[in-house]
Amino acid sequence: MVAVVVICRMLPYYLAPVISLLGVAFLYTMLFNNKSNNEFSCMIGPYAIFVCLITYSFVSIVFNMLFAWKLMSIPKEFVFFTDPYIPALFMIPSSFVTMIFVYIFRNNLSICKECNLKFGGIHERGKFGRIINYESKFQLANLLLVFGVLSAIIWSYYLGFYKNINQNARDWYVFTWLVVITLVLDELYFAMRYYNLYLDLKENDELLTPEDLMNMTSKIYLRFYVVCGNNIYMNVHEIDPKTHLREIIDTPFMTKRSITGITIDEVKNIIVRMTGVDNGELRFFFGRKGSASEKQSILRYFYFLDGKIEDYPSLKTPGEWLDFNQLKKIYSASPGLLSDMTVADTNRLATIIITEKLFNDKGFRKSKIKSYVPTFSLEEVRDSVLDFQDDKWIKISSFNSDRRFFRLRTWWRKLMRGSRKKATWM
Description:
Layout: H1 2-10, H2 16-32, H3 44-68, H4 88-104, H5 110-119, H6 126-160, H7 169-203, H8 210-215, E1 219-228, E2 231-239, E3 247-250, E4 253-257, H9 264-275, E5 281-289, E6 296-305, E7 320-323, H10 324-333, H11 340-358, H12 378-383, H13 392-398, H14 406-425
Parallel strand pairs: 1-6
Antiparallel strand pairs: 1-2, 1-4, 2-3, 2-7, 5-6
Helix pairs in contact: 1-2, 1-7, 2-3, 3-4, 4-6, 6-7, 11-13
C-alpha cells in the first residue's frame, strides 16, 4: 500500500488504477501462488491489504467512469485524468470500511477456512495456534484503527483547510507523506513487537531453529479413543499442559513412536497393551501433520469394545467411563474442561456426522425443516462408513444452501477456481 501511494505520486495520475491493480496482482501471487502458502504461517494481514486495494481500485474506477460518462460530477482531486489527483481520499476511507467487514467476518474468511482445513484449528496447533489467533486479530484491529485515524485526519484537512486553487507542500504532506510515514512506523512497531516475542520464546526454549528441524527425527503421535456402546474412556484428572495448575479431561491412551511409518498391526498391538483388551475393533479416525515439522504426524484411532461397560470395570490404563451425552454437554457448555485436542477432535467428528445428516454432497438440505437439529451417538460412529479424514463435509458445513446467495456464490467460486488454475498454469 505504501508502494502504491508513493508510485501514484511519482508517475502520471492516469496510471493510478494500473498501479493499484499491479499491487493487487502482486498480493494475489503472494497469497495463492507462493510456496509460503504451504508453510505454517498466517496470511490474514496481506489478505486484508489485498481486499483493501481491490476495493479502492473498484471504487476509484467506477467513480471515474461515471464522471467520464457525465453521469456524476466529482471534484478533480478524485479524478485520475486531472491534476491533482489525490489517491488517499479514496484509498484510506475505502480501506477503513473494508477493514470493518474483514474484522467482523474474520472467522468466516475463505483463506482462514482453508488454513484450518490444511493445518488444523487453534486447538490442534497448541501455543503456536494461540499466538497466531491472537496476533491475527490484533493485526486486523490495528489496521482498522490506523485507517480510521488517517481517514479522519485526511478528510478533516480536506474539508477544513485544503484549497483547490493551489496545492502547497503541506497539502502533499498530509495527503501522501503522512500516510506513508504512518504505515512505515506501524510496520516498524510490529517488527519490534515480533522481535521481542521471538526473544521471549527463545529465552523459554520454545523455538525450533532450522537446524533443529533438519536434525529432528520422524515421530508419529498416536491418540486412541476407546469406546464401548455410547460411552468413552477418559482420564478426568489429566494435567493441563498450558498451565500445569488445573485438571482437564482427555483420553489416557496416547503415545509416540520415533519412526517414519507404522502398520495397522503395530497400532493394534499398542492399544491392546494399553487397554489389556485384545478383542476390540480398531478404526482409523483421521491424521494430520504436526504443527512443528512435516516430520511429525498425529494419528487418531477409535477402539470399539463389544458388550457393556460393566464388562470392562477397569482397563490397564487409569481412567473412567463417561457417557458420550455427558461429554457432549461439557463440549457445548464448558469446552475449557476438555483438552484442546479433545475439543478439536470432537468438533471434527460432530461437524462431519451432523453435516452429512443435514445436507447432500452438493450442499443442499435433505430436509426442508430448517429447525431440525440432528444428534448422534458413538454407536452411529461405529456403524458409519464416513471417511473422517476427508474434508468434504467440513467444507459443506461452512458453505451450503443455508447460506445467502448460495447458488450465486457457487458459480463465482467455480469461476475464480478456473481463473486461479489458469494463472498457475501460465
